[in-house]
Design brief:
The structure is a single chain. With about 220 residues, this protein is mainly alpha-helical. The protein folds into two domains: about 90 residues; about 100 residues, no CATH class. The protein is about 65% helix and about 5% strand. It contains seven helices and two strands; from the N terminus they run αααβααβαα. A two-stranded antiparallel ribbon has the order 1-2. Helix 1 runs antiparallel to helix 2 and helix 1 packs parallel to helix 3.
Length: about 220
């Protein structure tokens, strides 16, 4: 084998080694980008949940933990945490969309009923003083019923009236009989609607601090 041939083969070996090393660096960069992208996606999803006032209590903590794992070099754990946070945020947004759709449907049904029969337009016509909870009910949907308040945003009125029987505003049970206050003042209604719109993050099974503050007023 000539010196020139040997040199040529050595050069090819060095080039191959360089390519292999280069590929390893590229793979590491791709993993890092994947973790960073997962965290960015989680933040974007949670920002949407925040905008809808439906952010879950633990989502922000999960994102922070994901960032800490990435900073420590544990990209796999960072991606897993970020994906979990994103999933939570997406569920929260879906809940907000569902509630908004219920509100739109309730308004549409009320408008249709109003146009079909003028006799149903009386201020107190058909209103109830109590309501028996059935499967699938929540305070939002109950408040939106025509015979209750025809406005889901007034659900805090039901919560406040039945504070002794409802521990968590997000958790009611079939068979519960709820008192419905049909004599709330304009200021009480305004306070209830304002609370419904600014309540903030909530968690099923817990009494939220914002709810406790509302009840104390």
């Amino acid at each position: 084998m000539t010196m020139r041939t040997s040199a040529r083969l050595f050069s090819v070996a060095l080039l191959s080694l360089g390519l292999i090393t280069g590929c390893a660096s590229t793979d590491e960069a791709a993993d890092s980008i994947s973790a960073e992208q997962a965290i960015a996606d989680a933040k974007a999803a949670n920002a949407e949940a925040k905008a809808a006032n439906y952010e879950w209590r633990d989502t922000g903590k999960l994102i922070k933990q994901a960032e800490e794992k990435l900073a420590a070099g544990d990209e796999e754990a960072a991606i897993a945490l970020a994906n979990k946070a994103k999933a939570q945020a997406e569920v929260a947004v879906a809940q907000a969309d569902a509630e908004n759709q219920k509100f739109l449907n309730a308004n549409a049904a009320a408008a249709a009923a109003s146009s079909a029969s003028s006799s149903s337009r009386g201020a107190m016509a058909g209103k109830v003083s109590s309501y028996s909870v059935v499967r699938g009910d929540n305070l939002w949907s109950i408040s939106g019923k025509d015979e209750v308040y025809a406005d889901p945003y007034q659900w805090p009125l039901i919560y406040k009236t039945n504070r002794d029987n409802i521990k968590d505003a997000d958790l009611i049970y079939p068979g519960q009989v709820l008192d419905i206050d049909q004599n709330a003042s304009a200021s009480e209604i305004d306070a209830a609607v304002n609370h419904a719109k600014t309540r903030g993050a909530w968690s099923l099974g817990d009494t939220e601090q914002s709810d406790s503050d509302y009840l104390a007023k």
